[in-house]
């Protein structure tokens, strides 16, 4: 029996030790928070290009531009009609309100091929009240270099609406902005060939020396050679060995997992009272006390009536103001040196402060030099 008890005790100890190792391993996996390279970086050449154009939306039910206030709409209409064969148009005779001048924007996706459709956004340029029910006429879309890369046309889709009467107006959403799904067709491609590259660069969205070094180490470990080199905190250059399979090579690189590093930062939005504290934030030993004055003002109005039988008496309103000043004192809460995020939150909760008071406390701690992080106020 004694040997059985010893064996049972050893077995329980072994099980507890095993569970401890499992929990530590799970905690370590959670703490590392590895992410794919494609989620924190972009690849050279794989980018969108902005397109813009000027056009006309027709078919509006009296909600278009007033030509007396929008001369560019009137001139655009006259130029369009002349190109379509309707000549000798007197611009002063154009009185329609069914047309609106618009700006058309779109994004040319990376590796967009000729003939592929893309979405466009249509925004009113004049004083049109709504684009609902309109149709965008043929509009060339140009890039930053002035070249036309796509052509847009089609019926617009507006999510908002506007209804008005003689004494009331109702507006829901923004009826002067519309969208056309697959409303443009790519007519010109951006020249770019992966096979012509001898190397490509990975650009980190949040430049950091530590993260860049970790990406380099992960790539070199995966490839088994020194193919990756850190150029700066935001750029890692990777040499291409097999130009025949560049796409597969990039696919392997972008799916590698790395643990990104971030700067300790506290972000405060004073307009909404939102506070975001990073996990790397540390605070030196400080004592915090939050208190202040509460002023209460009560206003009452007393009415003084004249006697029932009086000559020349008037009713007088006498204001009665009562002020009450209350001073609120709070106890000191001591935060030990080099506390973590959880210790900071527990300490602030211990003295019962809200978001607004927390902002003032963080600013005071930063001024004292005890906040070891960047304090960013937006």
From TrEMBL:
Protein family according to the UniProt entry: Belongs to the FlgI family.
Organism: Cognatishimia activa
Subunit description: The basal body constitutes a major portion of the flagellar organelle and consists of four rings (L,P,S, and M) mounted on a central rod.
Function per UniProt: Assembles around the rod to form the L-ring and probably protects the motor/basal body from shearing forces during rotation.
Pfam families, alphabetized: FlgI
Entries under InterPro entries matching the protein: Flag_FlgI
PANTHER family: FLAGELLAR P-RING PERIPLASMIC PROTEIN FLGI, FLAGELLAR P-RING PROTEIN
Protein name as annotated: Flagellar P-ring protein
Keyword Nucleus assigned: no
Subcellular location(s) per record: Bacterial flagellum basal body
Keywords for the protein's UniProt record, in alphabetical order: Bacterial flagellum, Periplasm, Signal
Record GO biological process: bacterial-type flagellum-dependent cell motility
GO cellular component: bacterial-type flagellum basal body, distal rod, P ring; outer membrane-bounded periplasmic space
The keyword Methyltransferase appears for this protein: no
Major localisation: other
Single GO MF annotation: structural molecule activity
